[in-house]
Design goal:
- This protein is mainly alpha-helical and about 130 residues long.
- It has 5 helices and no strands.
- The model has no long low-confidence stretch (mean pLDDT about 85).
Length: about 130
């Protein structure tokens, strides 16, 4: 599960990008307006732009935690806490959203971190390790 969690976060980022680019006409409208200063004053554009940019935040969390797993073999607990810190307020403020996915991934990341810590403790405490 340790290696799977970062991939799932990257997948969620890809889903963010896909929804933002495919399911809306906002980017086409902004392109026609020349992009420069094309979002202010139009709430839908601002909302969809932030939705798209949130994908980069998720991509960063996923790729960086994936790198840490490759380098150390451990999933950083911060990943779980960050995902919960984003997902829980989002669920409260905007219940019809992807917040449950963030919350589930955050909980899974914390479970994986706990399991890794427990396994390392068991290995360190085994009588054959002197």
């Amino acid at each position: 599960m340790t290696r799977l969690i970062p991939r799932l976060v990257i997948g969620l980022a890809a889903l963010h990008f896909a929804v933002a680019l495919i399911a809306s006409s906002t980017f086409g409208d902004m392109a026609r307006d020349g992009f420069w200063n094309a979002a202010p004053g139009i709430p839908q554009r601002g909302y969809e732009m932030w939705f798209f940019l949130a994908g980069f935040g998720l991509l960063a969390l996923g790729t960086l935690s994936g790198r840490i797993v490759r380098d150390t073999g451990r999933l950083p607990a911060q990943l779980g806490w960050y995902l919960l810190a984003i997902g829980v307020p989002l669920q409260i403020l905007h219940p019809v959203s992807g917040a449950p996915a963030l919350i589930v991934l955050g909980v899974l990341a914390l479970i994986a971190t706990r399991r890794n810590s427990a396994e390392e403790s068991c290995r360190a405490a085994s009588p054959g390790n002197f």
